[in-house]
UniProtKB/TrEMBL annotation:
SUPFAM superfamilies: NAD(P)-binding Rossmann-fold domains. Keywords: Oxidoreductase. The lineage of its organism: Bacteria, Pseudomonadati, Bacteroidota, Cytophagia, Cytophagales. GO terms for molecular function: oxidoreductase activity. This is SDR family NAD(P)-dependent oxidoreductase. Belongs to the short-chain dehydrogenases/reductases (SDR) family.
Length: 295
C-alpha cells in the first residue's frame, strides 16, 4: 500500500501516522517543511511547503518519480494553519491561510489524480467551523475574491479559517463528482472536532498548555448542550482519521462528511453553503484558474 500525506509531523496527523506505520507492506510519503524531520520507521519525509505552489508541483513530481508504475492507495490532505491575521501572503501572492489550507491541496490532488489507484481513498481534513449552524463564526457566504486577495473587509482569524474549511468541504464534493464515479475513489471530508493539543496556530505558549487541562471540564459541560465545544485530543482525532483512511470505518451510502463529535464519529450533512452545487462548481473553476490548470 502507498500512502501520501500532508500534515503528519505534529498533532492529529502525527497520531494517525502511528497507525499507518504499523501496516505491513506499506510505504508512506509525508510532505513536510524543512529537513531532518524525525518520523516513525516506515515513513519518509519529502520537501513540501504549502505556502508555495512551486513547492507543491515539485513535491508531486518527486512522488511520481518514487512511485514508478505503482499507484497511490490513500491520499491524506490534513495540513492546515490558522494565521493570526490575513495580511501574510503566499509565494504567489494569495492570502496565506487560503493558499495553505485550500489552494495548495487543490493543486496537489489535481496533479496526483492520474496516480491514484482505482478503489483508492482521499481524505480531506475540514472542520465543523465551516457550518454557521454549528459554529457561529462559520461562513454565511462564499466570496472567493475576498479569500484569495484579502482586504480589510475579508474574513480574519477564526472566521478566515472557517471559510477555508468550507473550501475543503466543497473540494471534497467536487472530487467525489470528478473522480468517484469513473475511478471508484472514495472521498471523505473529515472534521476532527475541537482539539486542544494541536499545532494549528503554531507553537503554543506555555500558559495556553497549562490552561487547556483547566478549562477542559468546563467545555465538557458546555458540550452537553453544544456538542461542537467538546475539547478532544489529537490522539483520538488521529485514530479516527486513520480508521477512515484505512477503511476500518465504512461511510454510510451517499455520505461524504465524517464528523467527530464528543469522541464519536457521526455522519451529518455539511452546511447549506457546502451543499450548493453552484458554489462547488464555482470554487473548482476559480481554483483551477489560480493554479493554472484547466477546469
Amino acid at each position: 500500500m502507498i500512502i501520501v500525506m500532508t500534515g503528519a509531523t505534529a498533532g492529529i496527523g502525527a497520531e494517525a501516522l502511528k497507525y499507518f506505520t504499523k501496516l505491513s507492506d506499506t510505504i508512506i510519503y509525508v510532505g513536510a517543511r524543512g529537513s531532518g524531520r524525525a518520523l516513525p520507521e516506515g515513513s519518509e519525509a519529502l520537501a513540501l511547503d504549502l505556502s508555495s505552489l512551486k513547492s507543491v508541483r515539485s513535491f508531486a513530481d518527486t512522488i511520481k518519480q518514487r512511485l514508478g508504475n505503482t499507484k497511490i492507495d490513500v491520499l491524506v490532505l490534513n495540513a492546515g494553519i490558522q494565521a493570526a491575521n490575513n495580511h501574510v501572503r503566499s509565494e504567489e501572492g494569495f492570502e496565506l491561510t487560503f493558499a495553505t489550507n485550500h489552494l495548495s491541496h487543490y493543486l496537489l490532488v489535481r496533479l496526483l489524480e492520474p496516480n491514484l489507484a482505482d478503489g483508492g481513498r482521499i481524505i480531506i481534513t475540514t472542520s465543523d467551523a465551516h457550518d454557521p449552524a454549528v459554529i457561529p463564526f462559520g461562513p454565511k457566504t462564499l466570496n472567493i475574491d475576498k479569500l484569495r486577495n484579502s482586504t480589510e473587509h475579508s474574513p480574519k482569524g477564526m472566521a478566515l479559517y472557517a471559510a477555508t474549511k468550507l473550501c475543503n468541504m466543497l473540494t471534497a464534493r467536487s472530487l467525489e463528482k470528478e473522480f468517484g464515479a469513473h475511478k471508484n475513489i472514495d472521498v471523505i471530508a473529515f472534521n476532527p472536532g475541537l482539539t486542544g493539543d494541536t499545532s494549528l496556530m503554531g507553537k503554543q505558549p506555555a500558559i495556553l498548555k497549562l490552561l487547556i487541562p483547566a478549562i477542559r471540564p468546563l467545555f465538557y459541560l458546555i458540550s452537553m448542550f453544544k456538542p461542537a465545544f467538546f475539547i478532544g485530543t489529537a490522539k483520538r482525532s488521529g485514530e479516527a482519521l486513520a480508521q477512515l483512511a484505512m477503511g476500518k470505518v465504512v461511510m454510510p451510502a451517499g455520505k461524504i462528511y465524517a464528523s467527530l463529535v464528543r469522541g464519536k464519529l457521526t455522519f451529518p450533512e455539511p452546511s447549506k453553503l457546502a451543499q450548493s452545487d453552484l458554489n462547488m462548481d464555482l470554487l473548482w473553476k476559480e481554483s483551477a484558474k489560480m493554479v493554472g490548470l484547466p477546469a
